[in-house]
Structures are given as structure tokens and as C-alpha cells.
Amino acid sequence: MLKMQNLSVQLGGLLQRKAKLLEDISCEIAQRQLVGVIGPNGAGKSTLLKSVAGIQAFTGSVRFFDKDLAKLPVAARARQLAYLPQAEVPAWQLSVRDLVSIGRLPWRGEAEDKSVARVAAAMDKTDSAALAERTVDTLSGGELKRVQVARLLASSAPLLVADEPIAALDLAHQWQVMELLRREARAGRTLLVAIHDLALAARFCDRLLLLDRGRLHGFGTPQQILNEENLANVFGVDAALRNIDGVPVLMHRGLRSV
Ligand SMILES: Nc1ncnc2c1ncn2[C@@H]1O[C@H](COP(=O)(O)OP(=O)(O)OP(=O)(O)O)[C@@H](O)[C@H]1O
């Protein structure tokens, strides 16, 4: 289980203006769940994910199965969680296969064949096997994103943290990646995924964590979180919600504010 307690992020030193990016986020996420982190631009989604991933300083605690993630040595933490940043542009002319293999680095002492098999499986699942020998700097934005998702999936970490993993993907690949992430949850992993597409979040996520200006506005099932009040008050849109096959579907009426 992933447990955040009073997680806060504040920027600025003694003489600088202080900015609260996250304020007292407390939330418990069960194992085997795909959790969508939603909220408008600037709500704090990336900051939350970076805090959980251990690359953003914060106060409070983030525990995963009773391990305080921030206190784990880096190598041990890398075996607990894999992280996909929002915008990651590889600086080297790595091959796709080598970039996906980076997901295996925390297990580099292990038998070679298992890593090779996991890398191949991750490329297959994300439709990136045909790109294996290309260098990553030649890929389109969507192809690169799929390869980066493959790197995440190649990891054996039980906690996956992904910042907008379906941004830049076409419709079919968005569905494919969401299906893959849900399957990883069903297989036992816990996933925390920032996502802007509320329709896909409603369709695939087990729980939604709604942030508004650095605060936790709500945590619950898509049915509980995606209501007309939250859409108006948090996202500033006037929308009607219709229930189709048990999934809330948004019908936009207009903007409340921009
Ligand atoms: N280093 C920083 N200095 C000042 N402000 C920052 C810094 N990092 C983040 N912020 C601010 O913190 C807020 C939250 O940023 P964050 O990237 O977490 O938002 P987000 O919800 O992921 O947004 P988006 O949907 O646009 O990706 C934003 O207003 C951002 O400008």
C-alpha cells in the first residue's frame, strides 16, 4: 500500500517569497490499483509524482508497504519504484533497445536472459519492437513516449509512477497504454499516473486523486470524483455527465472560466 501523510512542498528560502506547491496531502492507495492524478494545469500533479519518486524535496512522508521511500538508499528505491517524467528528451543517441534496457538497471546483477526477455516483452506490449534498432533521437514524439513507457514496464518495481504517459499518443495507442497500465495493476503493481484526459481516466482508473491549487480536493472512484460540481469548481467547465456502461462520460456545455 502507498501511504502519503501530510505531504507538503514549499519553495523559497528565508529571504524569498514562499510558494506552497502542495499542502498536506494525505491519501492511502491500495495495491493493485491504477490511480489517476487529475487536476488543472499547475494543480501540482507533477510535483506530487516527483515527491513520491524522491526527486522533489517535501515534508511529511511517503511510505510504500511500510518503507519510507525518501529514506531508502537510491538503489533500493529504484527497485521499489520506476518513474516516467512528463518530458524526458534523451540526450544520447541510444538505441531504443538500450533505452528500454535502462529500466532493468536496478537489477543489473541478475541473470542476463531474464532482463533480455523483459525488455523484449515491454517493447512488444508497447508496439515498439519494430523500432528496437533505431536511435531514440530519430523517433516521433508518440513513438518516443511508447518507448519510454516500455522502459517503465521493463522494470520489476512494484510501484510505477508515470507523468502523462499517454500525452502525444494517438487514440489507439492511448487506449493500448491505458489497458497495459491497468493490466499491470491487476498483476499486482500499484500505479500513480498523471492524466489530463478525464474520459480515459474514468474508463481505466480504479481511483482518481483530484488536485486543486496544491490541495487534495478529492480521492475516490471515478464515479465519486467526476461530478458536475468538481468539473465546474476545479476545472472551470460547465459539463454534463452521462453514465454509459457504468463509466461517467463528459458532455461539454461551455467554460466557466479560463
Ligand atoms: N521550481 C519552481 N519554482 C516555482 N514554481 C514552481 C516550480 N516548480 C513548479 N512550480 C509551480 O508549481 C505549480 C505546480 O506545478 P506542477 O508542474 O506540479 O503542476 P501540474 O499539475 O503538473 O501542471 P500541468 O498540468 O501543467 O503539467 C505550478 O504553478 C508551477 O508553476
From TrEMBL:
PROSITE patterns: ABC_TRANSPORTER_1, ABC_TRANSPORTER_2. It comes from the Bacteria. Keywords: ATP-binding, Nucleotide-binding, Translocase, Transport. GO terms for molecular function: ATP binding. Coiled coil: none annotated. Residues 2-238 form the ABC transporter domain. Transmembrane segments: none annotated. InterPro entries: AAA+_ATPase, ABC_transporter-like_ATP-bd, ABC_transporter-like_CS, P-loop_NTPase. Part of the ABC transporter complex HmuTUV involved in hemin import. Responsible for energy coupling to the transport system. This is ABC transporter ATP-binding protein.
